[in-house]
C-alpha cells in the first residue's frame, strides 16, 4: 500500500510540474542552435561528449523521420530529446549506428520502432527538478502510440538500465558493450508499448495524452501546415476522459 501511495503522490507531483511545461518541435535554425548549446552544456557536465563530436547538431537531426523536441519550463528551455520513427523501409536512427545487428533484426522481422536519442537536460535544472527526465521522455511514449510501433528502444549507459526496466518493463537486447563512438559502455533495451501502456498510464498519469496533442507533435502531412510554436500537454484531459469512460 505504501508503494501505491508513493507512486500516486509522485505522479501527482509530476502532473503539477507538467502544468508549467510546453513542448516545441524544433524546426528553425535559431531553435536548433539553442538545442545544440543545451546538449553541449549537459554532455560536458556529465563527461559524456562523443569522442568524435565536432558539432552538437547532426545530419540525422534533420532526417525526415526524426523529431527533435525542446522542453520548456516556465518558457525556459530546460531539456531536449530526439525521437526517430524507424521502419523496415527507413532504418535511420541513433541505435542502429551503435547496435546495427540488433536493430536490423527487429526491422528484418517487419517491426517498427521508436528510437529516443540525444537526451539532454540543463544540469542546473536537474539538480532542482530531477524528475524532469520523465517529462523529457514523454514524447517517446506519445510517438509509440501515434505511430503504433512494436518497440521503443533505449540505448543507454548500464547504470540507467534499472530505471527503464522498472518504469517501462524493458527487456535487455544487447548487454553492456564498449562503444568506440563514446568511449564507454552502452547497453540496448527495448520495451513493448502496446503491452506496457495500460499499466504505465495508470501508474504515471503524466505520460498520458490526447490524440490531438500527438498529432501536433508528429503530424507532418501537408494538411497539418507549419509546426505549432508550442504544444501544451494534455495528460490531465486524457486522464479525465478515461475516468468518465470507466464510470
UniProtKB/TrEMBL annotation:
Species of the source: Pseudorhizobium tarimense
Annotated ranges, domain N-acyl amino acid synthase FeeM catalytic core? 34-190
In terms of Pfam families, this protein maps to:
FeeM (PF21926)
Source domain of life: Bacteria
Q: Which InterPro entries match?
A: Acyl_CoA_acyltransferase, FeeM_cat
Q: What is this protein called?
A: N-acyl amino acid synthase FeeM catalytic core domain-containing protein
Amino acid at each position: 500500500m505504501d508503494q501505491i501511495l508513493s507512486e500516486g503522490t509522485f505522479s501527482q507531483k509530476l502532473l503539477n510540474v507538467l502544468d508549467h511545461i510546453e513542448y516545441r518541435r524544433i524546426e528553425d535554425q535559431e531553435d536548433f542552435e539553442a538545442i545544440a548549446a543545451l546538449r553541449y552544456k549537459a554532455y560536458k557536465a556529465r563527461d559524456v561528449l562523443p569522442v568524435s563530436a565536432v558539432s552538437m547538431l547532426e545530419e540525422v537531426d534533420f532526417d525526415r523521420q526524426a523529431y527533435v523536441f525542446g522542453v520548456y519550463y516556465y518558457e525556459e528551455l530546460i531539456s531536449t530529446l530526439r525521437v526517430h520513427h524507424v521502419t523496415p523501409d527507413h532504418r535511420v536512427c541513433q541505435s542502429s549506428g551503435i547496435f546495427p545487428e540488433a536493430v536490423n533484426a527487429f526491422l528484418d522481422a517487419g517491426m517498427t520502432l521508436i528510437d529516443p536519442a540525444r537526451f539532454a537536460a540543463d544540469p542546473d535544472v536537474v539538480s532542482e527538478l530531477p524528475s524532469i527526465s520523465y517529462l523529457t521522455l514523454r514524447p517517446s511514449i506519445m510517438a509509440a502510440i501515434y505511430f503504433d510501433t512494436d518497440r521503443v528502444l533505449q540505448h543507454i549507459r548500464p547504470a540507467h538500465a534499472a530505471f527503464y526496466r522498472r518504469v517501462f518493463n524493458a527487456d535487455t537486447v544487447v548487454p553492456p558493450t564498449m562503444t568506440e563512438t563514446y568511449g564507454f559502455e552502452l547497453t540496448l533495451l527495448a520495451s513493448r508499448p502496446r503491452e506496457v501502456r495500460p499499466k504505465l498510464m495508470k501508474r504515471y498519469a503524466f505520460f498520458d495524452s490526447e490524440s490531438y496533442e500527438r498529432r501536433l507533435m508528429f503530424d507532418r502531412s501537408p494538411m497539418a501546415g507549419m509546426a505549432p510554436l508550442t504544444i501544451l500537454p494534455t495528460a490531465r484531459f486524457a486522464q479525465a476522459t478515461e475516468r468518465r469512460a470507466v464510470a
